[in-house]
Amino acid sequence: MDTEDPADKVFLDDWYRALNEPGYNPNAPVALAVNGTRPKEEQDEPPPNRFAAQVIRRSALRSIPPIEPLIDGILSRRATAVLVGSYGSGKTFLALALACAVGTGRDWLGRAVKRCPVLYIVGEGAAGLDARITAWEQAWNAGQPIDDGDVIFVVRPGSIASPHTWADILAFAIAHGVGLIILDTLSSLGPDVDETKDAATITRRMADLADAIDGTVLLVHHPGWSDDGRTRGGYQWEANTDEVLVLHGTAKSPELRLERKKVKDGEAGPPILLRRKAAHGSCVIEGVAAQERAQAVANNAEAIARAVFGDGTFTRAQLRDALVERMSVSATTAYEYINGLSRDGLLRAVTGRGRNTQYRMEGRRP
User: Fold this and answer.
1) Do 356 and 266 share a structural domain?
2) Into how many domains does the chain fold?
3) Are 273 and 325 found together in one domain?
4) In a domain, 1, yes or no
5) Lowest mean pLDDT among 51-65, 76-90, 96-110
6) Do 202 and 322 belong together in one domain?
7) Virtual torsion, Cα 355, 357, 363, 365, nearest 10 deg
8) How far apart, in Å, are the Cα atoms of 147 and each of 117, 120, 141, 170, 238?
């Protein structure tokens, strides 16, 4: 990320200065970014001491607003957050659902929401957005269209590698009273961003933006290449943000699990079981009761075992591999499902001993 251009430096200096001054004018940073200079009457003024402006006395800490939920148990107000999810898992469907819930004030899967205008910034184009929003409106908003001022979309702005883009976002958000900004996704909004080297800079700009709007900034990102439980790129994506949400799942299975991996203050709470469901010409994200999920998983594991092995015999390792491949789960999770089949009397040892024991599927669930 190149910030060595003199105009960029002037912009950054003045943006951070402006954020700390009373009567902040959101249009000023944009003008400075374009012109690259301060008004003539300001050029002779000594540069402000930004460090001194950030000093907070002990007594002043009491006036800082406490952490409040934006979506109860999911996302906080006045925070920066990252939502991580694999390709095809449904992370954009989830992000859109959160945006629509906040913009309309509708509870999200039974969780209370603090209503505020939402700015949803998309890097991959507008194709498909109408169908996805319509599906949410049909499923959760009684078929009523979302008002234009509740959720505002911006499609393919300038790269977030540029400070000018952040100035434009800031000016627009303040002008429209936005309380939640969603950036979807890092790779599409910042194709020239180095996911490792630029992580600290982007997360700092997210924090400055959240402070300026007195709201929340959520970045949608992809997971690591070998670990779907962490963000791709530098560790700063998780270390430097207030909250981290991880959507576990794949394109192969509709069953999802939302983990609140990091919460700066408060309890993370247990994972939330979700399902990606085809509906109204698109997809929606719905909640799943733990008991229902357990039964669905058990039925799926049984169906796979019967489809792959029929009336034949197999080892636990062979059944494990079949479940891993078709259910997109880890070997450890696959063995949990196998143990469940045994407890339910559906798996019977036929011949052999130890690892060479041959099993056969027995009976069926009612």
Assistant:
1) no
2) 3
3) no
4) no
5) 51-65
6) no
7) -10
8) 10, 14, 11, 22, 33
**DSSP string of 210-278, one letter each residue:** HHHHTSEEEEEEPBPSS-TTSBSS-THHHHSSSEEEEEE--SS-SEEEEEEEEESSS---S-EEEEEEE
Tokens of 86: 């694999």
18-70 per-position pLDDT tens digit? 544 555 454 444 444 444 455 555 556 666 777 887 888 999 888 888 889 99
Quick one: DSSP state of residue 89?
S
One domain for residues 157 and 252: yes
Q: What is the pTM of this model?
A: 0.74
Of 238, 260, 287, which residue constitutes the final position of a domain?
Answer: 287
Query: Can you give the residue range of the structural domain that contains 33?
Result: 6-61
Instruction: Provide the β-strand partners of residue 255.
Output: 275
State whether 140 and 281 are in the same domain.
yes
Maximal C-alpha separation, the chain:
92
List of residues 6+ apart from 55 with CB closer than 8 A: none
